[in-house]
Amino acid sequence: MDNPTEINSVYWDEETKSWQYKVVPVEEYHGFTECQHCRRPMSHNIKSEGEFKVAYVKCACARE
Ligand SMILES: [Zn+2]
């Protein structure tokens, strides 16, 4: 699998009380954590804008 160059990460927005998406650029990719239920990625460990971050994504069983 090729490393992604950007990730559409999801986060909970307290102001709107809803899930919001944000595309974050990936400088270095360091793997992901998979969901124990559907085995799809739940979060990606990346370096973005000079910082190590965890970018959360929605796995296959988190769809509304
Ligand atoms: Zn899942």
From TrEMBL:
Protein name: Uncharacterized protein
